Amino acid sequence: MALKKLIFVYNANSNTKETLLDSAKKLLSPSTHDCKLCALTYGLTSEKKKWKKFRKASGIAMDFLHKDEYEKQFKSKFAQQYTYPIILIQDHYDLDIFMNAEKLNQIEDLDTLIDEIEKRWGS
């Protein structure tokens, strides 16, 4: 486990039915999509190239979880309930909010998300 990493938690569950519903919402009615983080980092069926390039080049350890996966993985240690999507920062065994749902939902494009992550990670 990395000593310090970001945990991205999508406002979606990991089952196939929800994944298909998510793709349909993106295609047919993007404004009704429930997860801004997903909309920023993923296209219809795969990770956006610019996001993937940033993720690999940044040097920041990152984990990506759906909300059901996060709640299962962290339920014994971190009982706090969050509003999703959210980006958390884990430093050893401490877990704090890196970017909350309110902030994520205000971000309009991928470039702004990347800039915010770089700015906050460096501070």
From TrEMBL:
Protein's name in the database: GTPase
